[in-house]
Amino acid sequence: MTQEMTVKKDLKCVFNMPTKISSEFDGDEEISHYLPPYAPVDVHPVDEYEACPTNWMHGSDMVSSYFVGVKEDHGMWIDFNECSYHTHDVAIVISIQGINPITGQKMVADKALRLEQYHKKCPIHNTNFKQDRYCEKCGFKWPGQNYLATTGTPEMKLWLDGFRTPDGKVRQYIFTEDKVRGVAAQLIGEERVFAVGIAYYLSKHKKPYTSERPKGRSMSGNFGGSPLICNLDGWNKYGDSGSPILGIGETLSSNSGDIVDNVDFNFFAGDSVEIGNSVGNISCNNIGATAGMTPKSTKGVGHIKASKSILRAQASVSPSMNVQPVTPVKKLEIGAGALIKQRVYDDPKMMSYWEEKPAGMIYINYCDEETKKKILDGGRRADKKDGFMKDIKVGG
Q1: I need a labelling partner for 77 at 20 to 30 A (CA). Which of 13, 149, 165, 355 fits?
Q2: DSSP label at 49?
Q3: Which of 342, 358, 370 is CA-nearest to residue 114?
Q4: CB within 8 A of 44, min separation 6: which ones?
């Protein structure tokens, strides 16, 4: 399993689903809340599960399509910070059920996930803006563009937690069964979809430099699929067995000096671990060629003990021939909840700075938890692990 979505290898995002924030007021004025916490959830490739609904988008060389289970009365935010470390600047257009969360404009047909800027004229009325992009006919100020961009957004703030209001504030995305509270349901009705779309546009030229990932990031940060540089103390809060669990191919790197004695680690195949400045005895399960794990110790670790050599990589499940696509049990809308202290930063670059077509797209098909379970129970695609060597003699 993974919590990181990616397309074209290095265009990534992480889907977070914290409990929704409740609106609060100081007299008649609504209070703006601080950012919701990290709450990454597992995502699954649509193409790998036969029971996915037939109307869900499939992947291709340019598109990655995932599905995720969501819960009513929970919020959502999408973390795009990994894009800050791309070789090019990145602009990100988002569609929430077919609505752009920055402009409220419909993102279907010819305008689907298209990069747009607004400097001189209102895109609805085609009339010249007044000061600060104010449209007299709309009655509000327009944002500078319909996307997020690494060019204008401060480092480690490349995210969007909700729908932007004309005064620049953001209302939290919330999942609800109440159709009349869904933003897209109210604005475009039956044209809405039950998915989130993301298009990544690259700058025409590489950046003069590539930013380095910050060090000392804690477990409360985005850790799906990225190297972890963190304090290992307190990891007994993670994993069903009381031990930290990493997905296939993920990497753990620790430069902490606060590792407690006799910590047990559970790793999947393809993981590697680098432990520095550690004290006490560290017992790592699944070290060895069989598990495909590469241990690397630095700066005088006490010792690393291989207690097992068992492959724990999640096996593919061969679906039965009669697996049928499921029908979602519930249809959850995405509404606009409490105010959050967040802003969408203007892009200082002109449209000519960006490529005309997206470099890649990610679709996130969301469904209720019961529907997700039915899809997973239908089984995962069974890939031929031996490839072209399937029916030939092999082995030493």
Answers
A1: 355
A2: B
A3: 358
A4: 1, 66, 67, 68, 375, 376
- According to DSSP, the residues that pair with 44 across neighbouring strands are 67
3-class SS of residue 374: helix
Alpha carbon 277 to its chain's center: 32
75, 17 contact by CB (below 8 A): yes
Query: What does the DSSP assignment read for 100-162?
Result: -TTT--B--GGGTT---B-SSB-TTT--B--GGGEETTTTEEPPSBSSEETTTSPTT--EE-E
pLDDT in tens, 133-144: 999 999 999 999
Whether 90 has a pLDDT exceeding 60, the answer reads yes
**End-to-end alpha carbon distance in the chain:** 32
Contact 39, 220 (CB under 8 A): no
The ranges assigned to domains in the chain are 4-211+324-377
Tokens for 131, please give them: 């000061």
Identify residue 187 by its one-letter amino acid code. Answer: L
Specify the pLDDT at position 321.
55
Task: Work out the angle at residue 146's Cα, subtended by the Cα atoms of residues 143 and 149, and round it to the nearest 5 degrees.
Answer: 100
Nearest to 286 by CA among 322, 257, 313: 313
Give this prediction's pTM. Answer: 0.73
Look at the alpha carbons of 6, 7, 12, 18 in this order and tell me if their dihedral is positive or negative: negative
Cα Rg, the chain, nearest whole Å: 23
CA–CA gap between residue 235 and residue 217 (Å, rounded): 14
Q: Would you place residue 102 in the very low, low, confident or very high pLDDT band (cuts 50, 70, 90)?
A: very high
